[in-house]
Amino acid sequence: MDTEERSKKRLLLWSRAVVHFSLCFAFGVFAALVPPAATGAPSIDVIGASFRPTVAAATPPLPDLDLLLVVTVARPDEDGMSLEASLTRLGNTLRLVAPPLLWIVVGAENRTATARAVHALRGTGVMFRHLTYAAENFTGRPAGDEVDYQRNVALSHIQLHRLPGVVHFAGASSVYDLRFFEQLRRTRGIAAWPIATVSSSDQTVKLEGPTCSSSQITGWYSEDLSTNTTETTRDSSSSTTQAAVDTNASNQNSSSRPPEINISGVGFKSSMLWDSERFIHREKSTGINQDLIQLVRQMVTDDEDKRRGIPSDCSESQIMLWHLDMPRYTPKIEDQEALEKESPMKVDEEVPSKKVDEEEPVTR
Questions:
Q1: Of 175, 188, 282, 302, nearest to 236 (Cα)?
Q2: Are 208 and 319 in contact (CB under 8 A)?
Q3: Does 154 score more than 90 pLDDT?
Q4: Measured by CB atoms within 10 angstroms of the end CB, which terminus of the chain is less buried, N or C?
Q5: Is residue 158 situated within a structural domain?
Q6: Which GO terms describe its biological process (predicted)?
C-alpha cells in the first residue's frame, strides 16, 4: 500500500509540473508571434533612436549692439552718503540695460566720497572703470570748473584707449526710461533729447531739449512749467521761426544766440573724438586736447547735419530722462561721526582706482 501511494503522489507532482511547463511554453510562443506594435512595446528602431545624438536647431545670432559709454561725475560739494545712494540707484538701472555697457565714474583722490563711490560701484554688478584726479588744483574755484575737468578726464580716457561706442553723460540722480538706452544705441552721429528737471526745493519743473522737424534738430527750447514761460533758440541756418507752445505771447522769447545745452541731454559716437576734423585740428595745434568738453558742446551746436532727435519727433510727451534736484541733507557733526563709526567702510582706506592711462579690455 505504501508503494502504491508513493507512486500516485509522484505521478501527481509530475503531472502538475508538465501542466505548468506547457502553459509557460504556450504563453511564450504566443508572445513571440504577436507583432510588437500590437502590444505597444517599443521597437528596436525606436530604442536605438533614443540613444542617437540629436542636433539642436541653430539659434539666430544675437544682434551686434553698440557699446554704451555712460559717464558719471561726482559733484565736489556732494557728501559720501548721498553719492553712494545715488550711484547705487543708478547702478540698479544700468544693470537692466542690455550689454555691452561700460560705466565710467570720475572722482577726486583722497576724498571720503570717493571711497564710498567705489564701494557702491563694486556692488552694482555693472562693468565699470573708476578714474581719479587731484582735486587740490580746484581749491577756491567754481564747482562747475571741476565738473568740466572730470568730464575731460573721462573723454581723454575714451580717446586714449579708442573705446568705440556711444557716449552719454549721466547724472547720478537721473531717472531713466529703459527704452531710452535702446534708442541711444541707434546714434550714428549726435543725438539730443528732452530732459525734465524736478526741483523740490524751488518747487519747479523745467523742460529743456531740442526742437525737431522730421527728426532734424532745428533749435533748442527751455520751458518753465511753474511760470509758464518758454525760451527758444533758433539755429543760424534755420529759416523757420520756432513756435513756443504757450498761450501767453508775452511769455515767449526767441533768439539766435548760442544755446545753453544741458550736457546730459546729448550723446555722440565716441569715434568723433579721434575722427572728427575739429578734434584732429585741435590736437595738431595744441598737442593735447585739454578741453574736450567745450569741443563737444561746439560740435553739438555747429554740426547740424549730424544731429538727430530722440525720439524722432522730439516729442515732449515722451520724456525718457528725468533729473531730480533733491535737497541735500547735511548731518550734524556728532551724527556724522556716529555714521562713520557704523559704516562698514573705513574712511581713510586706500581704494585702488583706475587711472586714466590704464588699459582694460572691453567685452562686446
A1: 302
A2: no
A3: yes
A4: N
A5: yes
A6: cell wall organization; glucuronoxylan biosynthetic process; plant-type secondary cell wall biogenesis
Statement to judge: residues 136 and 189 lie in one domain: no
Q: How far is CA 316 from CA 72, 258, 301, 326, in A?
A: 25, 22, 20, 23
**Cα 115 to the center of its chain, rounded Å:** 23
**Strand-pair category, 174-176 with 101-108:** unpaired
Q: What percent of the chain has pLDDT over 90?
A: 38
Pairwise CA distance, residues 266 & 220, whole Å? 12
HSE-up of residue 257 (Cα within 13 Å, Cβ side): 5
Domain enclosing residue 138, as ranges: 64-172+331-364
Identify which of 117, 123, 105, 126 has the alpha carbon closest to the alpha carbon of residue 181.
Answer: 126
7-11, 222-226, 347-351, range with the lowest pLDDT = 347-351
The number of distinct structural domains making up the chain is 2
CATH number, domain containing residue 162:
3.40.50
Give yes or no: residues 141 and 160 share one domain: yes
Question: Which residues pair with residue 252 across a beta bridge?
Answer: 230
